[in-house]
Amino acid sequence: MNTQRQARAVRLGPRSLAALVLVSVVGIAGFGWPFLTPPTSQLSAHAQDAPWLFAGLLVLLVAVVAAAISESGLGPKAVAMLGVLAAAGAALRPIGAGTAGIEPMFFLMVLSGRVLGPGFGFVLGSVTMFASALLTGGVGPWLPFQMLAMGWFAMGAGLLPGPDRLRGRGELAMLAGYGFLAAFAYGTVMNLAGWPFMSALASNVAFDPHAPVAVNLARFVAYCVATSLGWDLGRAVVTVVLTLVLGPAVLRALRRATRRAAFETPVTFETPVTFEASGK
Fold it and tell me: Using an 8 Å Cβ cutoff, are 158 and 121 in contact?
């Protein structure tokens, strides 16, 4: 038996995969609608209805989590692992309060998604962001987008190649590179959640519902450079440094805990021994 084989606590079965695809499609539409609709679309006239879209995304996210858990037969040990990692991530997020992108929770999401697989990674990312919002008082219409983006972030780490074979410096370099790029991607995606609702009169980088897609794309790039480039760079650098420094120890601990927990091993109960009374 190969003890290095990765045990994945949450598998992407048919129902959970379908739910994940559905929420991802809706999420892409929710993030990218300024570039997917023409200037004459009535969608721009209903921009203030965005909270309804956020509420719908949150419902779909809950459905993804429920489908993944129910279909995979998530046992108590995997639920405990999910709770511990989500609590750790939620506790790490307030460190630095996001100052200059100092957000150490991202490296933990990368390593956890790598070891425990894309299904567990998506659930973990979403639950961690929700728990963090409750801890820091960050509950608002942006929360469903944060949950979805963090779920994608952690799931992507689980989809990286060589989960059973690649180890050592090569794996750390791959994870650090992914964390660097994904940290920028996360910041860019989250910019899309708020950028369309800026007043076009407030800034020349705000979304203009009457402008062509190319003009709005240039505005969005300028908005990202002006408002979040330094923040995203800090997040990316912190993720890379923590991955390279703490990555080997955390990966070993996660893999050891996963093997010992044996998430995929079905729970069996011994048949109780009965004794018949003599003479019967």
Answer: yes
Please give the model's pTM, rounded to 2 decimal places: 0.79
Task: Classify the phi-psi angles of 210: left when phi > 0, otherwise alpha if psi is within -120 to 50, otherwise beta.
Answer: alpha
140 secondary structure, DSSP code: S
Tokens linked to 89: 């991530």
Helices and strands (H, E) in the chain, number of each type: 8, 0
CA dihedral 206, 138, 108, 100 (to 10 degrees): 50
Write the secondary structure of 159-214 as one string of H (helix), E (strand) and C (coil): CCCCCCCCCHHHHHHHHHHHHHHHHHHHHHHHHHHHHHHCCCCCCCCCCCCCCCHH
Report the percentage of the chain scoring pLDDT > 70.
73
Q: Which of 59, 70, 71, 73 is nearest to 22 (CA)?
A: 59
Burial of 84 (0-12, 13-18, 19+ CB in 10 A): exposed
Q: What are phi and psi of 224, to 5 degrees?
A: -65, -45
- Give the burial class of 96: count Cβ atoms within 10 A of its Cβ; 0-12 exposed, 13-18 middle, 19 or more buried: middle
Residue 156, CA distances (Å) to 9, 175, 235 in order: 16, 10, 17
Question: Each residue of 148-201: pLDDT tens digit?
Answer: 899 899 999 989 988 778 888 999 999 999 999 999 999 899 888 878 777 665
Confirm if 86 and 128 have CB atoms less than 8 A apart.
yes
- 164 burial (CB, 10 Å; 0-12 / 13-18 / 19+) is exposed
8-state DSSP, 274: -
The stretch 6-27 carries a mean pLDDT of: 71
What backbone phi and psi angles, to 5 degrees, belong to 166? -75, 125
Other beta carbons less than 10 A from residue 264's beta carbon: 14
